[in-house]
Amino acid sequence: MAKKIGILFGMEDTFPWAFIDKVNELGKGEYIAEPVLIDKLEQGADYGYAVIIDRISQDVPFYRAYLKNAAVNGTYVINNPFWWSADEKFFNNALMSKIGIPLPKTVLLPSHERPTNTSETSFRNLKFPHDWEYIFNYIGFPAYMKPHDGGGWRNVYRVESPEDMWAKHAETEQLVMMVQEEIVFEDYYRVYCLGRKYVHIMPYEPRNPHHLRYATTHQTEGKELEKLLKTITDYTIKMNEALGYDFNTVEFAVRDGIPYAIDFCNPAPDADRNSVGEENFQWIVEHAAKLAIEKAKDYKAGKINIDWGTFVTNKL
């Protein structure tokens, strides 16, 4: 009997169908891919998928619940929905600091407004004022302020001074923000990592309009470039092993030859043909299909098949 591989997705319209076609081509009838279709969700019910690739549950809580139920029944979910639910950018930075990954200096800020249903006494453990002199000297300006658990470049601010930061912080209401050193870079890369082993490094220019961000090339050359790409590959695998993500992108800003990890919590990264370009698109489709089939081969009925990163398993 063929093993089923599902994909859960939303508005994107190039990657999912190409992924389905590629799995069905490589699967040769033993592995069959299809869009996940949900007409009911009964607690504990098994809906028959060996593997599901998740591209949308970050925006749809119902889907996240569906995937956790599927994982309890043995489906290998890419990415682990329990870890994805617990994940956040500031923690990821803290974790990377413990495994030797270069990072921008980063500090967490309390929310500008008190969370709903709290009062002044809810914050008796928080010292007022914060040690702003230390924070500003440590981070420096210009800097970037972003939500500690957000994504998709929402609520990201470039701040030029303490006064500018406070003014913009006032716009963030109850969001918990982190402020981060600006890395003035010579090179920038976005890196696909699949299965914690397949790595595809893409020159990337985040200052370009979205549809032109991949329309760039390496600024580093020769042996220095070879060394840089090897370091980026090693860091990327090490980071995803710690986080436990099977489908992720990592972004590096290169300053003075050192790749600083800027963003590495992208478990549903852009894979649209129109933005990533044909070569990158073909790579991600082929390797996503290959990974899904590998996980379906390893699937064992009646057991929990999802796995965890080395942080959770205490094997850093």
Keywords, separated by commas or semicolons:
316 residues; Dna Ligase, domain 1; ATP binding; ATP-binding; 4-stranded parallel β-sheet; ATP-grasp domain-containing protein; Rossmann fold; ATP-grasp; globular; single chain
What can you see in these coordinates?
- The protein has nine helices and twelve strands.
- The model has no long low-confidence stretch (mean pLDDT 96).
- α1 packs across α9.
- It folds into three domains: 3-86, 3-Layer(aba) Sandwich (Rossmann fold), CATH 3.40.50.20; 105-181, 2-Layer Sandwich (Dna Ligase, domain 1); 187-266, no CATH class.
- The chain is of the alpha/beta class and 316 residues long.
- The chain has a four-stranded parallel sheet with strand order 2-1-3-4, with helices on both faces. It has a four-stranded antiparallel sheet with strand order 5-8-6-7, with helices on both faces.
- GO terms for molecular function: ATP binding; metal ion binding; ribosomal S6-glutamic acid ligase activity.
Mean pLDDT: 96
Helix content: 25-40%
Query: What is the beta-strand fraction?
Result: 15-25%
**What is the SS-derived class?**
alpha/beta
- Counting DSSP E segments of at least 2 residues, the number of strands comes to 12
CATH architecture of the largest domain: 3-Layer(aba) Sandwich
Q: Termini separation (Å)?
A: 39 Å
Number of domains: 3
CATH topology of the largest domain: Rossmann fold
CATH level 1 class label of the largest domain: Alpha Beta
